[in-house]
Amino acid sequence: MKRLALVITLSIVILLVHLSLRNIAMAASADLPSGETVISMLLGWGDKVASWVLALFGSVLTGYVIRRYMKGTAAEILARALSEIFDAVLEVKQTYVDSLKDASRDGKLTSPEMREARERAISIAKSNLGVKGLARLSRILGVDNLETWLTTKVESAIGTVKITAPSTKAPASSSLLPKPVPSR
């Protein structure tokens, strides 16, 4: 989209410059009538010069608007993708990881279970973003293989969830628990 707009804008500018230079060259080669001055010639060509300047200004303004729109759209798509990834990690934690930890003696996951949890989170994130969302995200990031990027972001979200999630296990020492108030 951005490249197409740039090509169209440059084509218009080149065409206008070519036409303007051709017209100026034709006017310069023609014999000026005896009463005509350079100022009167400029006034005569003013509409053509003004249209060229307006076209140039319009092309620059169009490029600016397209860049601003694309920048905003890219930020929105990226923010949505990161939110979907984080939500997918939370979903897997609540539906898969927590049940495995509760069933485990030591409360920890094995390597295959961790791999499965990561794959589930990536799968859920992909499903939530959809085919078009993934294509847009790939185009915005400029990557051909989005899998590596998704894996990295899922790992980052897992680390954030681990840090911020409260521990569900009781402390090892009962000295950390408040002492009961004796009854009178």
Describe this structure in words.
This protein has 184 residues and is mainly α. It has one domain (2-21, 45-162). The protein has four helices and no strands. The chain has helices spanning 2-29, 38-103, 111-141, 146-164. The longest helix is centred in the middle third of the chain and has 66 residues, at 38-103.
Lay out the secondary structure:
Elements: H1 2-29, H2 38-103, H3 111-141, H4 146-164
Summarize it:
This protein is mainly alpha-helical and 184 residues long. The protein has 4 helices and no strands.
Annotation keywords:
4 helices; 184 residues; 0% strand; mainly alpha
Main sheet attributes: strand count, strand direction, barrel closure:
none
Q: What's the helical proportion of residues?
A: over 70%
Number of helices: 4
Give me the secondary-structure category.
mainly alpha
As a percent range, the share of strand residues is under 5%
**Shape label:** rod-shaped
